[in-house]
Amino acid sequence: MTQQTKSAAADNGVNVTALLGAREALTATPEAARFRWRASSEWQHGTHNRASVDGFFGLGGEQKHRQSFQFDTDHPEIFASEDHGATPVEMVLVGLAGCLSAGVAAVAQNRNIQLRSVKATLEAGMDLRGILGIDANVRNGFDGIKVHYEIDADASAADIAALVAQSQKRSAVFDIVTNPTDVTVTTRKA
Amino acid sequence: MGTAGSRTVDVVVVGAGHAGLAMSHALGRCGIDHVVLERGEAAHSWRTERWDSMRLLTPNWMTRLPGCRYEGGDPDGFMHASDVAAFIAAYARLVAAPLRTHTTVTDVRAVDNGYRVTTDRGVWRCRALVLANGAFGKPVVPRLAENMPPDVDQLSSQTYRNPAQLRDGGVLIVGASATGVQLAQEIQRSGRSVTLAAGEHVRLPRVYRGRDIQWWMHASGVLDQRIEDVDGPERARRVPSPQLIGTPERATLDLNALRAQGVEVVGRLAGIRDGRAQFSGSLRNVCALADLKMDRLLDFLDEWAQRSGLDDAVGQRQRYAPTDVGTTPRLGLALGEEIRSVIWATGLRPDYAWLHVPVFGRDGTLQHDRGVVAPGLYALGLPYLRRRKSSFIHGAEDDVSELAAHLTAHLERKGRQPLAAALTA
């Protein structure tokens, strides 16, 4: 019976044929593989900030999202802020969850595994003595991130674990948070 | 540059290691006129580019070449590098290979009807050329090595010999393939504290269900898997060597074993900045990937044993504890203070610097179809060239037999007349 369900083609809504085609095409034309992701932001008031995501560069030209997306970030009321949005550090967790879960879906599709539900919970520890400058030995950022997946799918526990492991291996945000990235910040008086 | 002073021969084989000599044996049996050019003596790299304690990862009974097998008294032992050199040198004599020793190839170009091979001892013109100069000619050191503080000694798996060579103080070993884990154990035992930076790796038990893991891989046909049957052949060719060591105790040498001996395991070396080594936070995942991959292999081997009626002939099924990386793997280290020496165990690649023929891909790797590089140009001994066992000593036999047949057909298509006659025709 499991054999029969496996032989039916899984459909997780990921166009793997297109992804594999893109991989082949971009192997032949590495210039087209160079993307530039962008966001812009404007300070609102207090710790409230509004960021927009609209266009990006890739496949050799300017590209647009179907629409412009806005993201509000702020700090919670216990920080004496107005809580107009998620904290920036929570946005990092949002990005990590989005990236890993998209990867799980794509890898599952490629391995012909039908997903029924993929739920992730993420938690990051942070010692505020870092950003408050109380202790120079405490870093500003997370001291660790824990991600937990609950996945219902037509696959063994080992195959599901392999999906999540492969997704991490291929994840951009996982790479960004686990490896150093050179950051350049410039400023001009407007 | 005329051809004055050059000698002609049907086939030039570059390198008198196990693969080049096996090819020489095959060509000799077909009566094909050839020479084997060797920069030193036969098995040169086994004499000069191996650390002192290095042994094969495969048991002695697997070490064989066409017409020659191990006949010593320790079939389950693991040959020391010097024994491998002696084995290959004896093979060169056995097959009476037409060796030109102490002859270093400095330049190869395609010419009409073949190749021109320049050496430090004259020029050869040939109709076919076999690249058998080894898969492990030069160390691959990541670009970030440029940022290493100058007071840190840097070695590679080619220049490392033994722990006495190292200054006192901490040692960082970059890479957790067979080389990295072996050096980590040896150097930790010398009393230096070792940090091992582990990216993606291949975990294997030395002995599974009472048999050597290489017996399982060999007997179940895993080592015979052909590259054309593999998903992602380019990736398969880049898989690092498994975490194995050949010792009389047949001990497993995985990351758990190293941590039990006091080695500190950290993530892949991701950067060097302001005198600090930065390690990736991906250690847990690369260990999970290796654990899952090992379990899939063991599942496959168990199924094969059952299918083959071997369940009673071997021991009980086993599974191993997941790799334990500790609660908080370290993410950085001060180079210079905590680390005096860095050993790059980040892989080796063949060295074709002298091959001036357009046969390289964008990333500089040799492009070939299962060892056929270009008309009359062949490669041997590379990882997964034709089969998973292609870079093993015993893997040369099948590859050589198929590529020698291809080469012979190539020469026949061109006419079996000597090159000089073909050139003047």
Could you please describe the fold and organization of this structure?
Chain A is an alpha+beta fold and 190 residues long. Chain A contains five helices and five strands. In chain A, the strands form two sheets. A three-stranded antiparallel β-sheet of chain A has the order 1-2-3, with no helix packed on it. In chain A, strand 2 and strand 3 (61-73) form a beta hairpin. In chain A, helix 3 crosses helix 4 and helix 3 crosses helix 5. The longest helix of chain A is centred in the middle third of the chain and has 23 residues, at 88-110. Residues 1-6 of chain A have low confidence and may be disordered. Chain B has 425 residues and is an alpha/beta fold. Chain B has ten helices and 22 strands. Chain B has helices spanning 18-29, 44-48, 81-94, 178-189, 213-219, 233-238, 255-260, 283-307, 396-413, 419-424, and strands spanning 7-14, 34-37, 64-65, 68-69, 99-100, 105-111, 114-119, 122-131, 138-139, 153-156, 171-174, 194-198, 207-208, 211-212, 264-267, 269-273, 276-279, 332-334, 341-344, 348-349, 372-374, 377-379. In chain B, strands 1, 2, 5, 6, 7, 8, 21 and 22 form an eight-stranded mixed β-sheet that branches. Chain B has a five-stranded parallel β-sheet with strand order 10-19-11-12-15. Chain B has a three-stranded antiparallel β-sheet with strand order 16-17-18, with no helix packed on it. In chain B, helix 1 crosses helix 9. The longest helix of chain B is centred in the last third of the chain and has 25 residues, at 283-307. Chain B is globular, with a radius of gyration of 23 Å. In chain B, 47% of the residues are buried. The mean pLDDT of chain B is 95. At the A-B interface, helix 4 and helix 5 of A face strand 16 and helix 8 of B.
